[in-house]
Amino acid sequence: MKISEILNKEELTREDLLALMKIENKEELQLLFDKAYEIKLKHIGNNVYYRGLVEFSNICIKNCKYCGIRRDNKNVERFLMSKEDILQSAEWIYENGYASMALQSGERTDEEFINFVEDILKTIREKTNDGLGITLSVGEQTYETYKKWKDAGAARYLLRIESSNRNLFETIHPKDSLHSFEKRLKALKDLRKAGYQVGTGVMIGLPGQTEEDLVNDIIFFKENDIDMIGMGPYILHNETPMGQEFKDKILSEEKRVELGLKMIAICRIYMKDINIAATTALQGLDPLGREKGVLAGANIIMPSATKTSERGKYQLYNGKPNINDDAEKGKTELEKSLKKIGENVVYGKRGDSPHFFSRGK
User: Fold this and answer.
1) Which of 197, 209, 356, 191 lies closest to 273, judged by CA?
2) How far apart are CA 60 and CA 192, in angstroms?
3) pTM of the full predicted structure?
4) In 10 A of CB 266, how many CB atoms?
5) 30-61 per-position pLDDT tens digit
6) Distances (CA, A) of 154 to 174, 210, 222, 233, 244
C-alpha cells in the first residue's frame, strides 16, 4: 500500500505504523509530517503551550547507564535549589503567562525529599492562586507519594518508560531491584490511579533499538491510554557506561533527528488528541529541532526557567543547548521562531491534554 493511502486510513495497523516508520523518501516523509500537522490543527489548533521547566536538583539514587547525573558519576557538582529559588522561578513563570510549569529532578524516595516536594507544591499553589498547571518529573515513587503530591497541587506526571522492550530496558539500566521494568510499569499504573494526566516517553535511536521497537513503543502508549508524551533522540554523555561503549557506534545525528520527528508525527496521527512535547534533545542535535517537532505534530515546549547558575550542572547528555541563556532571552527568541512557522504561543491557558478529559468521560 502506498504511504498516501496509509495516511488516509481511519485506523492504522501495526504494519501501517511500521511502513510509516520505515519511510526514507523525502517526499513521503513530508507527506507524513503534513498529515500529522493537519491532525494537530484539527485537535489542538496552531497552538503551542509552554511549560516553564525548573530542574531543581541533580541528586539521584539511580544509576542508569545513559544518564549524566547517574549516582556513580563523581564529576557532577550536585545541587538542590532552595525553596526560595524554586518559588522565584515559579513566580517568573506565572508572571510571564506560561500558566504551566514542570518540576524535574534526579530521583530520590526519602521522606525529606517527599516532604520538600509536597511543601513546594502547596506553596506554589498558594503564591499563584492555583494559577499554574504543575507537571512533576521526579521518578518512581509509591502510590501514596503520588497521591500526596497530587493532593498538594500537581496535575501531571511524566515518567518515561525509556523503552517498552523489556530486554532493551534492561540493557540500558543496571540489573537490580532499583532499576526494574515491572516497577516502572507499576508506577505508570499508580499514576493513573492517583488521578494524574499521565505522561511517558522513550529514547529514540538507542544502540540495538529497531524500527519495530519504536512501533511497539507507540502501540504501548496507546494501549496504556497515555495523555502526554515526552520523548527525544538519544544523545551520549561521555561520563556514562553507554557513552564510552557506544561513542563510535550510534546512528548519525541527522538520522536520530529524523527518527525523533517520525515518532512525533506517527504518535500524533495514531493518538490524535494527546499532548506531545518537542524536546530540548531535538534542539541538541538540530538548532531548529523544536520548530521541526512542532511542524511534525508537537504542541508542547519546555523552555528552561532553571536558575542560570545551576543549569550547567543538570546535563543528562552532552551538548545541552541554551544553558547560559536567561529565561527571558529564551522566551523571546523561541516565540519569534515559532511565529515564523505560523504557530501561536498560548499564554494564560494551561494546555492540559484533551485526551485526559475525553478519557475521563
Assistant:
1) 356
2) 24
3) 0.97
4) 25
5) 999 999 999 999 999 999 999 999 999 999 99
6) 30, 35, 23, 27, 37
